[in-house]
Amino acid sequence: MKSTVSLQVNTDTLLRLISQLKLRGGTLDIAEAITSAIDLWLREQSKLSAGSDPASVRGYQWKTLFLPDGTELRSWSYGEHNYARVIGDEIIHKGKAVSPNQFAQSFARSFRNAWTDLYIRRPEDKQFQLADRLRKQLAAQAARPTPTLAPAPAPGLPPAIVEPPPPPRPRDTTPGEGWTLPERRKFRFRLEDVGFE
Q1: Is position 122 within any domain?
Q2: In 3D, which of 115, 116, 141 has the Cα closest to residue 63?
Q3: How big is the CA angle at 95 (ends 94 and 98), to the nearest 5 degrees?
Q4: Pairing state of beta strands 80-87 and 72-77?
Q5: How many Å is the Cα radius of gyration of the chain?
Q6: If we measure between CA atoms, which residue out of 136, 75, 110 comes closest to residue 85?
Q7: Which of 51, 112, 113, 132 is 20 to 30 A from 73 in CA distance terms?
Q8: Going residue by residue through the chain (197 aa), what tens digit of pLDDT does each one get?
Q9: Of 143, 160, 181, which residue is a domain's last?
């Protein structure tokens, strides 16, 4: 026998859920939809490491790169390493809060690009990595399509993963036999014919 508990849900959220269920159709009722939403949230939470509540994560957001609390920044200048650390929501270097660019410029006698000058070691990393390399890895991950979850087929069953559709095949532009239509060129003449006129 299943036991149930009543929960308080914001009225706007409940109305949005009801309208979404009407749009989708099917036999899923409100209680089953709320149960599947909670199950999905619990699965996502189990993937996170212990103590990494997204609401309480602190760190420094550097453009697209997030540096969590405890991250070390290192730069090499004139024969010595210089270090800074992310404490709370700031980068601290010699007791002062600085930006990555200010840290890169603080010991240099010339202009420095912080992306190509700073090496970063986050708390989960074993060694320092160039900031620009980390930024490019994030961009590559964002460019990859992510599979989406299909609507839950029935209560108690895991949702199916829907792969994105394959990209369209390139159009065949070879002219067929008896082709009489004009060619669509970008220019009115070919560049190689210009020198002979």
Answers
A1: yes
A2: 115
A3: 80
A4: antiparallel
A5: 28
A6: 75
A7: 51
A8: 577 778 888 888 888 888 888 887 767 788 888 888 888 888 877 776 655 665 567 889 998 889 999 999 999 888 888 899 999 889 999 899 999 998 888 877 778 888 999 999 998 889 999 999 999 998 888 887 765 555 555 566 666 666 777 888 776 666 667 766 666 655 555 666 666 55
A9: 143
Say if CB 30 and CB 157 are below 8 A apart: no
**Residue 114 to residue 84: CA distance in whole angstroms:** 13
For the chain, how far is it from start to end, CA to CA, in angstroms? 91
**In angstroms, rounded to a whole number, what is the distance separating the alpha carbons of residues 2 and 131?**
52
What residue type is assigned to position 43 of the chain? R
Residue 76 lies in a domain: yes
Q: What is the residue range of 65's domain?
A: 59-143
Can you give the pTM of this predicted structure? 0.50
Say if residue 23 is in the same domain as residue 86: no
